[in-house]
Specification:
The structure is a single chain. A hairpin with a 4-residue loop joins strand 7 and strand 8. The protein has a ten-stranded antiparallel β-sheet. Strands 3-5-6-11-20-17-18 form a seven-stranded antiparallel β-sheet, with no helix packed on it. A six-stranded mixed β-sheet has the order 22-34-35-39-36-37. It starts with a strand and ends in a 12-residue tail after the last strand. By secondary structure, the chain is an alpha+beta fold. The chain has 18 helices and 39 strands. It has two domains: about 300 residues, Distorted Sandwich (Beta-galactosidase, Chain A, domain 5), CATH 2.70.98; about 400 residues, 2-Layer Sandwich (GH92 mannosidase fold), CATH 3.30.2080.10. The chain is globular. InterPro entries: 6-hairpin_glycosidase_sf, GH-type_carb-bd, GH92_a_mannosidase_put, GH92_N, Glyco_hydro_92, PNGase. One of its GO terms (biological process) is glycoprotein catabolic process. It holds the Pfam family Glyco_hydro_92N.
């Protein structure tokens, strides 16, 4: 059926998406459940996802507002019982701050501006969630009901409110609120000063909101002082009255206002039963927000037409994978994961040829993206985007190069501007992987210049700044510790910098990525230099007495086994030399000893799939002659960490990486070393999967290649007995990117018991 059946995870029957919002038919989109990953008992125990509506990579996502969001809190949580409005959010992940949001809050009777006062009760029985359409029926505070429906394009929200037996209807447009700083104290707030402009003739309420919660951790040299989120709301019904509200005080008939705790409102005729609002959003100006509105949802376009266009964009992407042999909940997990990988990671920042750059507070021409979490996405999410959104990669890379030109460095974790969150310079890996896989239509000269600077120029005050996680009042972190002992002796000193063990390993991997890029750009001397550093430096922190990688102080002394790690520990990071697994195996005593060490890691409860440093570890068995053990562990991890409920992600989605792990694993292979061009074979989950790749933006064809992964009985038989790629037997548990994108057929023969396939191969 083309009608979406969403499991709302309640005792009642699931609610159907109306047929008018199920066009075009798409089995893939029908199995997206945006509620997956919204639950959890804590910020770190949640997927951090929200049931938002927007097309892939949208500048703004629209979501029902059940709480006020800040770092560690999302705008919607399934456990809440009231809805306080509908928010155009730019919060890219649960552990990042909100920026320049706008909230549209319907109501009836007395105008309520305060967040708590305006909340309306609802039941999940009266809620519909999908990738392109959301609706909920709420209890109006003074009686009656309000039905809210929404869809969106990239830069415009489309909302429709139906008033059923209510008092005088109104819509509140919130520009500014109290902004929570950090995550530890919700009472630690600042008050951004915004603006509201009301034009009753054009039926518009426009304004700006300069809130940007992550400003406290931006580099001091590029503070983005002029940044604001701008909006322009256009209604389809005339106002009966209007006004500006500030800190709870209404100024009737006022058409402008500025300052803190600011909103505008419009009342409508007492007899009105329905009003539609289109909300243009911009990072440039109110005029640009108005232009975006006119371009993306012009006057006269229905909500149904907007939802159809957005659903079509999702169907085009998600429909490229066809699954056979999956139960309904497995299809929900798979297609929701696909949805997550393309949802807002990164998201569009340009607006029809122009973009605002916070690095130099200037509007430029070109394409731009923000919301990069490179420490997370370099592992598998970026490889997934290269396969299924190759048309986006050149613009994404060029955007990073523009960040370098305007701010001086490639981004680490960009949220409007750099935030210094996480460690290392993994843009080096993203760029190298793109070039390795044939995507070169960006400025290669600048790309080399930028990654070379990453690897050879320490940050300012490198010897005197710790660069701790979310440290305030510092400049660009980049490779903090580069000038301590890393360049001379091979490690980052734990007595000078935070997370020193992880930094040593991540910098070494990024050096490997740069060596690959140098080789591709015909720079043999540079390639040899960075390759040597990448293979030597990780083992400068290998403690032969313990068999673990451990952080060291500048003196060379061991800093302690619990010191120096990023979202992991010595167990996870001892396996984190993906560019030289043979070297790691050798130091651990060979294949047999290494496999026993992996067993100890898993059986001892050390594997933490909720954080990214563990994601590649189950695949290392395959590289040590124990492929069947990889197959066992991958299946266990998938079963324990993913399901089709609100608690269906064991850890934060982290900009698509959690889902990318699942997707690659379900197909039967994973990019352990992303810049090697190889995938390590695991265990395909389904009887048959067909991948229809989008056409390359650099080819002369309008059709991409097709790959069928045949694995009969895979749902119940997890072990690989044999593999042929286009008729050629594969004996080692590796395939190449070229094997994948050239298409054809991968034929697995599966077994219910461990097999010897791949086990004799020492990689």
């Amino acid at each position: 059926s083309s009608t979406l059946l969403i499991c709302l995870l309640t005792a009642s029957s699931p609610k159907l998406v109306p047929p008018a919002f199920s066009i075009p038919p798409s089995d893939a989109v029908d199995h997206v459940n945006p509620l997956i990953g919204n639950g959890g008992d804590s910020p770190n125990g949640s997927g951090g996802m929200i049931p938002s509506t927007a097309p892939p990579f949208a500048m703004t996502r629209w979501v029902a507002q059940s709480r006020e969001n800040y770092v560690s809190v999302t705008p919607y949580n399934y456990t809440d019982t009231r809805i306080h409005g509908f928010q155009g959010t730019h919060q890219p992940a649960i552990w990042m701050g909100e920026s320049g949001q706008v909230v549209i809050a319907p109501g009836a009777g007395v105008i309520r501006t305060n967040f708590e006062d305006r909340g309306m009760t609802f039941s999940h029985d009266d809620e519909v969630t999908s990738a392109s359409y959301y609706s909920v029926e709420m209890d109006a505070i003074e009686g009656g009901r309000i039905l809210a429906e929404q869809s969106a394009t990239s830069r415009v929200g489309h909302l429709r409110f139906t008033f059923i037996g209510t008092r005088t209807p109104y819509v509140l447009v919130e520009a500014t609120r109290a902004s929570v700083l950090g995550s530890s104290d919700p009472n630690n707030v600042t008050h951004p000063e915004g603006a509201i402009l009301i034009d009753p003739t054009s039926k518009e309420i426009c304004g700006k909101n300069p809130e940007r919660q992550d400003f406290i951790i931006e580099p001091v040299s590029t503070p983005a002082r002029k940044w604001s989120g701008y909006f322009c709301v256009r209604f389809d019904e005339p106002f009966s009255s209007w006004g500006v509200a500030q800190n709870g005080t209404l100024s009737e008939e006022s058409t402008s206002g500025g300052g803190i705790l600011l909103s505008g409102y419009a009342r409508f005729s007492r007899s009105l039963t329905q009003v539609t609002a289109r909300v243009g959003v911009s990072f440039i100006s109110i005029d640009q927000a108005r232009r975006n509105l006119g371009i993306e949802i012009p006057d006269g376009q229905s909500l149904e037409d907007t939802a159809k266009a957005t659903r079509t964009s999702w169907a085009d992407k998600l429909g490229r994978i066809k699954i056979q042999g999956a139960a309904k909940d497995q299809k929900q997990v798979f297609y929701t994961s696909f949805f997550h990988t393309l949802q807002q990671y990164p998201y569009e920042q340009d607006e029809y040829g122009s973009y605002y750059s916070g690095y130099d507070d200037t509007v430029h021409e070109g394409i731009s993206y923000t919301g990069y979490s490179n420490w997370d996405i370099y592992r598998a999410e970026w490889a997934w985007l290269i396969l299924f959104a190759p048309e986006r990669i050149p613009g994404m890379v060029q955007s990073m190069l523009q960040d370098y030109q305007e701010g001086g460095w490639l981004p680490m974790w960009k949220n409007i501007v750099e935030t210094n969150i996480m460690i290392a310079t993994h843009a080096d890996s993203l760029i190298a992987e793109a070039v390795l896989k044939g995507i070169t239509s960006f400025d290669l000269k600048t790309a080399w210049e930028a990654v070379h600077k990453d690897a050879t120029h320490p940050p300012v005050n490198d010897m005197t700044t710790v660069y701790a996680d979310r440290e305030e009042n510092v400049d660009y972190e980049v490779r903090a510790g580069l000038s301590s002992v890393y360049e001379e002796r091979g490690w980052v000193a734990a007595n000078i910098h935070s997370e020193a063990g992880s930094r040593t390993l991540d910098y070494s991997y990024d050096d490997y990525a740069i060596s690959v890029l140098a080789k591709l750009l015909d720079k043999p001397a540079e390639s040899a230099f960075f390759l040597n550093r990448s293979l030597t430096n990780p083992f400068t922190i290998f403690n032969t007495a313990t068999g673990f990688l451990e952080a060291r102080n500048s003196s060379g002394e061991w800093a302690g086994q619990q010191v120096g790690w990023t979202e992991g520990d010595m167990w996870a990071y001892t396996f984190d030399v993906v560019q030289d697994i043979p070297g790691l195996i050798q130091r651990r005593g060979g294949n047999k000893s290494f496999v026993e060490f992996l067993d100890e890691h898993f059986d001892g409860g050390h594997n933490d799939h909720t954080n990214e440093p563990s994601h590649h570890i189950p695949y290392l068995y395959s590289l040590a002659g124990a492929a069947s053990k990889s197959q066992t562990r991958v299946r266990q991890i998938a079963a324990e960490n993913y399901n089709a409920t609100v608690n269906g992600l064991s850890g934060n989605e982290d900009c698509g990486q959690m889902s990318a792990w699942y997707l690659f694993s379900a197909l039967g292979f994973y990019p352990v070393n992303p810049v090697s061009g190889d995938y390590v074979i695991g265990s395909p989950f389904f009887d048959s999967v067909t991948l229809n790749f989008p056409p390359s933006p650099f080819s002369n064809t309008t059709h991409g290649t097709s790959l069928r992964i045949s694995a009969p009985n895979a749902p119940t038989q997890p072990y690989v007995r044999s593999l042929h790629t286009n008729g050629v037997p594969v004996t080692a548990p590796l395939i190449t990117h070229s094997d994948v994108v050239h298409g054809g057929i991968f034929e697995f023969v599966m077994s219910g018991a461990p097999e010897k396939w791949g086990n004799e191969a020492t990689i």
